[in-house]
Design goal:
With about 625 residues, the chain is an alpha/beta fold. The chain has 16 helices and 28 strands. The longest helix has 21 residues. The two termini are about 35 Å apart.
Length: about 625
């Protein structure tokens, strides 16, 4: 690959998880694409239960698929070479170049230096291929780059930035407070070689008068020697696909609905059972986009009573989710609903547990387990994962979706419904994303309203595709209007600025690794699942391009290096240059305190990220 032209690049890191890396990366991709730049997103390692299937059948994180859409390019396995999907018993499924290669514990994932080298080589090969094809590659980091206990094994933050020579833009969420200390501490905890790549900072989710913030920006620049690349305002209603929602409490969680009133006389209430290890909860976004549809995530049986539709979503632990439903009393509530002819929809794992029987020697290894018996379906878990992009029709309308599952369903009766079946008002399918098909969604909601006795009428002109594009355009507008795009352009084109000063004390001396599994949840504690906190991954502490055999087999088998990465087809050609900008205005904020942030309790849209067993966090998808 020597001699190939490589496009520019940038790594978007964050002071914390959920600082806004995903949406800032998407915003930069959309801004560049609007300038005529051939740009692609990249994340070396992602940890998420929200995944997507590419056209050529590879599984990647939904955040990277969303960023590819923002860039106007087809998603590819090159854009997310390592995906970790957490499961039970402190393990994660490792998906390498779009294919599952096995389950692994944190100890196993972190323990082998050889494996770390293989994975880093694969990650850098994919990045190199993208940079040889596109004019710019915008990389997303994970967690915080200053998770000092994980630096040795990092291939998503400074590990990949140093190996690829990428400048790093650090994003901080000012809505959480303490953003200046976070920027300073993030920089000061890095070793000198890593600090030399930290080009500057970007404030995210600011509420208030930016002029009142400027003295703080100037003071931090004076002590770090690094500029600010902009202050992005708090933007409501950006329901962008995210990595996960595992750590957010579900109490009172409501998926954001359109402001527009219902077309008919009544609203429609949708309750989503917040099963453990919930995956692809973005399936309900298209419902929440409908005027008059209110989507709530629930975990108690009494919360199903007034629901017009109950959805049992996908999960990485079907048998565990079934047990959780039974222990919570939700299983009995679902059985009662079915007997009363009230609508229930099961998607993927939710479909499987509605059936008669589950034979699982793969995911839970529980053997044969009785399902809820609401659909005439028997499910057997296969070692090989089904990854597909099916299309068909239902309720007289065309439907497209995608499949990601180990369970193979044997349909023994009922009426056909997509690849599944329905009995009465109980519906089941393996297809994720089917509700994004506008005609089918409207037809399905009409059936639900009729069965529920609601005078609800679906809006005739809601286009989920158009709404998604509008959201991505808003992200591009945020960058265009509130970031220093000239400075960003130079950073992407020219690389890290020379002569950036060292901020003491730097990284502490390494200590011997403990025998227990590596901590998770931002690198400082929590459940020891590999990569939790979304920053862990194998790498060496290297300052140059990787060496060694790039065709060696990585984790769990399968080819690595150029040949393996090349399985991801459909990457468009290179070309394009940075063009002129066309700024568009965005909205400012309201009452301000002395530090420029709003005082009192701010108004919030009705939206939190769904998840399981954790403390509530802020708004989902806010840039």
């Amino acid at each position: 690959m020597e001699g190939r032209r490589r496009g520019g690049g940038l790594l978007v890191a964050g002071t914390t998880s959920d600082a806004g890396k995903s949406v800032v990366t998407a915003g930069i991709c959309r801004w560049l694409a609007r300038q005529g730049v051939k740009v692609a997103p990249f994340k070396g390692q992602n940890m998420s239960l929200n995944s997507f299937v590419t056209r050529d059948g590879a599984e990647i994180g939904r955040a990277q698929a969303m960023q590819a859409r923002a860039a106007g390019v087809e998603p590819s396995a090159l854009m997310n070479p390592v995906l970790l999907k957490p499961g039970g018993d402190r393990t994660s499924q490792v998906v390498l170049l779009g294919r599952a290669v096995g389950e692994m514990s944190a100890r196993g994932y972190f323990g082998s230096a050889g494996r770390r080298e293989e994975l880093l080589t694969t990650v850098l090969d994919c990045l190199d291929q993208l940079r040889s094809t596109y004019s710019a590659v915008i990389c997303e980091g994970a967690g915080s780059p200053a998770e000092i206990n994980l630096r040795r094994t990092d291939l998503v933050n400074m590990g990949v930035a140093r190996a690829a020579g990428l400048p790093v833009l650090v994003v901080g969420d000012i809505d959480r407070g303490g953003v200046f200390a976070s920027f300073f501490g993030t920089t000061a905890l890095l070793e000198a070689a890593d600090q030399s790549l930290i080009a500057g900072y970007l404030v995210n989710k600011f509420r208030g008068d930016v002029e009142l913030l400027r003295p703080g920006l100037s003071m931090l620049t004076s002590v770090t020697g690094r500029p600010f690349f902009g202050v992005l305002p708090y933007a409501h209603g950006l329901g962008i696909d995210e990595e996960d929602g595992l750590r957010v409490s579900l109490r009172g969680a409501v998926r954001e609905s359109m402001v527009a009133p219902p077309v008919g006389a009544e609203i429609l209430r949708v309750a989503v059972c917040a099963v453990p290890l919930m995956s692809n909860f973005t399936d309900v976004d298209a419902l929440a986009a409908e005027p008059g549809v209110v989507v709530r995530f629930v975990d108690r049986p009494e919360e199903l009573v007034d629901a017009d539709l109950v959805i049992v979503p996908g999960t990485r632990g079907t048998v565990g989710a079934l047990d959780w439903l039974r222990r919570r009393g939700l299983a009995d509530a679902l059985v009662r609903r079915a007997a009363e002819g009230r609508p229930v929809l099961g998607i993927c794992g939710g479909f499987q547990l509605l059936g008669d029987r589950i034979d699982d020697e793969v995911e839970s290894r529980a053997g044969v387990v009785e399902g809820l018996g609401l659909l005439p379906v028997r499910v057997r878990f296969a070692e090989a994962k089904t990854l597909a992009r099916p299309s068909g029709s239902a309720l007289g309308e065309p439907v497209e979706g995608y499949e990601i599952h180990h369970g193979v369903a044997e349909i023994l009766g009922g009426e056909p419904f997509l690849d599944g079946c329905r009995v009465g008002e109980v519906w089941g399918t393996h297809w994720h994303g089917s509700l994004e098909s506008d005609g089918f969604r409207r037809a399905f909601l009409r059936r639900v309203a009729e069965a529920a006795g609601r005078r609800f009428v679906p809006a005739p002109d809601t286009s989920f595709e158009a709404l998604r594009e509008e959201q991505l355009d808003r992200l591009g507008d945020l960058i265009e209007e509130h970031a220093d795009t000239d400075a960003l352009r130079r950073l992407v084109e020219d690389g890290p600025p020379a002569g950036l000063p060292f901020v003491p004390p730097g990284a502490p001396a390494p200590v011997a690794a403990p025998s227990a599994v590596a901590p998770a949840g931002g690198g400082t504690g929590g459940s020891p699942v590999p990569g939790a906190g979304r920053s862990a991954a194998p790498s060496g502490d290297r300052s140059g391009a990787p060496s060694g055999d790039r065709s060696a087999a990585p984790v769990g088998g399968g080819a690595a290096g150029d040949g393996a990465a090349g399985r991801a087809a459909g990457v468009p050609g290179s070309g394009g240059v940075f063009g002129p900008r066309s700024p568009e205005a965005m909205t400012p904020a309201r009452d301000r305190g002395g530090d420029g942030r709003e005082t009192g309790t701010p108004e919030r849209t009705r939206q939190t990220r769904p998840g399981h067993d954790g403390d509530p966090e802020g708004q989902e998808g806010d840039a």
